[in-house]
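Quick question: what would this complex look like in 3D?
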Amino acid sequence: MVELSSDVMRGYNDVIVLSVLAQGDSYGYEISRRINERSGGRYPIKETTLYSTFARLERSGYISSYVGAETFGRQRTYYTMTESGRKYLLVKCEEWQLAKEVIEAFIDKIIES
Amino acid sequence: MVELSSDVMRGYNDVIVLSVLAQGDSYGYEISRRINERSGGRYPIKETTLYSTFARLERSGYISSYVGAETFGRQRTYYTMTESGRKYLLVKCEEWQLAKEVIEAFIDKIIES
DNA sequence: AAAATTACTTCATCTGATATAATAATTATA
DNA sequence: TATAATTATTATATCAGATGAAGTAATTTT
């Protein structure tokens, strides 16, 4: 199984995390599992990449956090996508479509040959 | 016209430069123009990004350079893709297909909604 | 009792992109 | 004919995001 590194996905970790949060609030470890599932095991995001993504998104106001009300287990920090985060996600999705088209304009000729 | 920054294309500048060189030797300024053309003006690569990409690719042995035999105008440095560069390009193209599938696994759900 | 899993944090380092600026030759324009 | 624009490249410092290494802490499984 070929796996991707976060470095290859650089710039898209924001989009990936936000698209998981678009389906409802969640916390680090669970988001990590969801990313792994939704990528079919092809993208095992690094812990440090994930948590630094949370920090960046929160600093930018795209997500907000709260401590869960667990009565057992270790405390979890839950994240919610903000309205501003939703808009940012849409903008990044459009940017992705454009980036994809541009990259493919170059790559298609290679694949053909 | 929406334009992409090299930062969004981060990691794919190698692929873009190599795919231009796959069509024949060329030099900085011309490669820059070709990238602009082939991207339909959507990717005006920064000079410094381009030349630092050349330096990296050459250090890695994926391209080699020689000084052109111009009898007029400023000296140009031409680049050639090496055999190793050709293999690297193919590997990066496969990596791209995978990255694309993974990113779209997340983004598709956003676009639908 | 020890190992594995869940859950998160800190910190130092690396790489690629970029801003800024400079150099240098040629061609177009006022 | 002076100057602006274009062609062509280089040097250097800085920044942000990803990552390796390591540690903390609670719970569950073996």
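Answer marked as accepted. Chain B has four helices and three strands.
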